[in-house]
Amino acid sequence: MAWSQVCEVADKFLPFLLNRWPDLYSEIQGVAAGAGQPISSILALNVRTEIAFGMFSDGCTALSWKDGTTSLLAQNWDWQQEQEANLIRLQIKQDGKPNIDMITEAGIIGKIGLNSAGVGVCLNATRAEGVAFGRLPCHLALRRCLNSNSRAEAIVALQEAGVASSCHILVADPEGGTGIECSSVDIVLIPVCDKGRVTHTNHFVQEHPGVAENVLFKDSGARLARISELVKTARPDVVSIRRLLEDEDGYPISINRQRTHGSTIATLFSIVMQLDKGYADVRMGRPTEAERYLKLQPHPDDV
């Protein structure tokens, strides 16, 4: 698809965004002005999931765990190795909404991280047919969650707005986490298990009647089984969860993923958030070969 065609598809979201989400559109305008790029180009980045019609390649493993007063949210984010150079830390200070500290791709205003109210989000790509131009694009849905003051607020907001395409958003706050499996026609929630956990990879685990899913990664089931097993003997703390994300069982298509001869997909960053304490530890690159370390910590009055 030529870039001009990509922008034409992105522009189909304009009526919905201008009518329902002018604040998000205004921010996209600001990014475009700052970058010296057409608005359609920046909008296209923010709706890339929908433009690709499910043919994207994010492969990720995520988990949420509430134990006592501890609330953890974690993920390895896997994508094309070449995209590593485009990853940035984005800190956002905003009036009347929580401040945000997240890892994203340059130009995209919603991704993986946490806010000053203790709400955090992770993302798993899934692949199912359908795009709805009258619903929130996936990455803007992540931003809506990060604009929320609680997990409950985020869930209600997405249920009311709908999500434009297939994905799984894992949202958590100091009270625990909830999985939100989305398609272009429905949203199905995944509650915590009796141990206070939610785990997810790159396929639907709930029923979505009438939705045709084409599982993106054949190893998704194996990774889900592996993380679900590992967490049974782990401790609910940041150090222990970091170790889970280093796991190489099934290497190279493991939780800690490495590129192969047939694919350039690898783990590009690993994040563990402790939401009851309001911070996240990030390792850029594969967690066993971290290139640099970041601590995300949005503050109520300053980022």
Care to describe what's here?
By secondary structure, the chain is α+β, with helices and mostly antiparallel strands. 26% of the residues lie in helices and 28% in strands. It is built from 9 helices and 13 strands. The chain has helices at 3-10, 14-20, 22-35, 39-46, 48-51, 138-146, 151-161, 220-230, 238-244, and strands at 59-67, 70-80, 87-92, 100-105, 112-115, 120-125, 167-173, 176-182, 187-190, 197-200, 265-274, 279-284, 292-296. The strands form 2 sheets. It has a 7-stranded antiparallel beta sheet, with helices on one face. A 6-stranded antiparallel beta sheet has the order 10-1-2-11-12-13, covered by helices on one side. α1 (3-10) crosses α4 (39-46), α3 (22-35) crosses α4 (39-46) and α6 (138-146) runs antiparallel to α7 (151-161). The radius of gyration is 18 Å and the shape is globular.
Topology (elements, then pairings):
Blueprint: H1 3-10, H2 14-20, H3 22-35, H4 39-46, H5 48-51, E1 59-67, E2 70-80, E3 87-92, E4 100-105, E5 112-115, E6 120-125, H6 138-146, H7 151-161, E7 167-173, E8 176-182, E9 187-190, E10 197-200, H8 220-230, H9 238-244, E11 265-274, E12 279-284, E13 292-296
Helix pairs in contact: 1-4, 3-4, 6-7
Which features characterize this protein?
303 residues, alpha+beta, seven-stranded antiparallel β-sheet, six-stranded antiparallel β-sheet, 13 strands
